[in-house]
Design goal:
Number of helices of chain A: 16
Largest sheet of chain A: 2 strands, antiparallel
Strand content of chain A: under 5%
Structural class of chain A: mainly alpha
Oligomer: homodimer
Low-confidence stretches of chain A: none
CATH superfamily of chain A: Farnesyl Diphosphate Synthase
């Protein structure tokens, strides 16, 4: 198993290098510079490039490793960065991947327009890899875009809502995060020439791994090691965000504990020196374990749907990927 | 001729009604409301719906009136409204079609996200009308989107640039305005099953009529009748905008006249009580006539490319449309 893990890691790393190359040229030598330089700035900010990997792995899995749609991989990353640029404005975020956000580095107007432009190039790049099944691929990509807008709108709504149920929260992350992962796997499967059964299986994998990924994100925010995390641990509580952990805690807490949690919503966040107290409350209520259980459930569901894949090596690759996501520390 | 003009006007009006119906349902019954209600607000603001008409007329012209892609027509109007919503933020505009702009009516965050969402639904709607040639149609649509972002970026650049040549200005409006009209005709022609020759001819028509339309817009800003115009006549001068008329005047003016014009750029606009003085200068320099000549030139070029259309009735319809655009007063 150790050997195959190394094999998967080196596949991930080598594919990541290739995706970076396509991304790097996607905005180069275009005019006006006022539009594409800031675009290059955000793309150069790096990231795990997980979404492109989902496209590639899905295409490879259904095509006996023969088809690798790099343009489409770059397209999903461009789309992802479009959402980051616009979301950072709405979240009033100053820092992204250790550097000033685009609207801080340039201006609000530039950030709006560059976001739009990243999306336009995303479609352009996706089309480069499309042939006979352009309609299905574009439909899936567009569906992902529609949902990511809806998810972001729900997320903003939640900031103002007093009560949010766990079901509502799950619907929001399905749209905001999971729809994108689902789309990556779906277009990869289409572009690789997969059967309808394979397309469905990989889409389901993407969706469930996306939900697991987001709950893991919520969990890391409170349980991560600050040095490795690169951000303030407990940041979601400071912002008063209604995360999976927070909503789960709220649903379990009674009496004084409940009042303490409601204060987070009422006051739109807590001070940094209160984080420890809330983490202890989360531990007392068992919501860290609850989250871990949910992450494992969704990951199992994701992997279960891959039974239809013929090649064991592909299934192992996805298993490695899923496990890496669960065990990540940032 | 009078009879056929009535025929064309009534065709325009009846098709507009049908486009409005498709537009009206495009955002209805979708969730969350926080996203789609503001979207409906902007769509309900009305407008001439010229872009949808270009799609329909192009499709009809190449298909013996058999094909009318209403979804694609709605798509180009949704795309157009996406640009309006984001441009209004960047232009800090308070009023659009006599009502508060989206970011004034709701909020900046909502306007950014609703713009994105209008674009997502635009692609969704366009795909509804695509079949065998989805790739060509989507490519043309995406090319239009890429260029409209580039054009807007150039337009914003011009605000800060001291010197802008007429060539640079024409490139900017080709991207910001004409590329969209070109795209409408192109996708209409594709969806109608036109030959490559017809697609090219209609694209060229769209591009040139788009340039004529924009110069006409610049001309109207100073020459319109205030009552019919619905906006302040001379608004472009007040904002210090580098329009076709302004750049043409600058290229012709000498001595004191030149200094007077340069003041507009230096001071980033003039006061309302100075408009009359500048209009007189424009008249003295003959730039109103120059603009009219250019509008007629581009319109002739547009109509000339339609010689390949078989049906005389179609050519007459486009001629009527082109002439209506030239003679419009708002």
């Amino acid at each position: 198993m150790k050997n195959s893990v190394n094999k998967f890691l080196s596949l991930y790393n080598s594919e990541k290098v290739k995706v970076e190359k396509v991304l790097a040229i996607s905005l180069r030598k275009r005019n006006p510079e006022s539009l594409y330089k800031p675009g290059e700035y955000i793309i150069a900010g790096g990231g795990k490039r997980l979404r492109p990997l989902l496209v590639l792995l899905s295409a490879m899995a259904v095509s006996d490793k023969k088809i690798k749609p790099y343009y489409a991989s770059a397209a999903v990353e461009l789309l992802h960065n479009f959402t980051l640029v616009h979301d950072d404005i709405m979240d009033n975020a100053d820092i992204r991947r250790g550097r000033p956000t685009l609207h801080k580095m340039y201006s609000l107007d530039t950030a709006i327009l560059v976001g739009d432009s990243l999306l336009s190039v995303a479609y352009e790049y996706l089309l480069k890899d499309c042939n006979g099944n352009a309609k299905e691929v574009l439909k899936a990509f567009t569906q992902g875009l529609v949902e990511v807008c809806e998810g972001q709108s729900m997320d903003k709504d939640f900031e103002l809502k007093q009560k949010v149920s766990i079901e509502e929260y799950l619907l929001m992350i399905e749209k905001k995060t999971a729809a994108m992962a689902e789309m990556c796997c779906k277009i990869g499967a289409y572009l690789g020439g997969g059967t309808e059964v394979e397309v469905k299986a990989l889409s389901k994998f993407g969706k469930n791994i996306g939900i697991a990924f987001q709950i893991q994100d919520d969990l890391l925010d409170i349980s991560a090691d600050e040095k490795e995390f690169g951000k303030i641990v407990g940041g979601d509580l400071m912002e008063g965000k209604k995360t999976y952990l927070f909503l789960k805690a709220l649903s379990k807490a009674k009496g004084e504990d409940n009042k303490l949690l409601e204060k987070v919503t009422e006051r739109k966040g807590i001070k940094q020196n209160q984080i420890k107290k809330y983490k202890l409350l989360y531990q007392k209520l068992g919501v860290l374990e609850d989250s871990r259980d949910e992450i494992i459930n969704y990951t199992k569901k994701a992997l279960f749907s891959l039974k239809v894949l013929k090649n064991e090596d592909d299934r192992e690759m996805f298993t490695w990927l899923a496990n890496s996501l669960i065990k990540r520390n940032k």
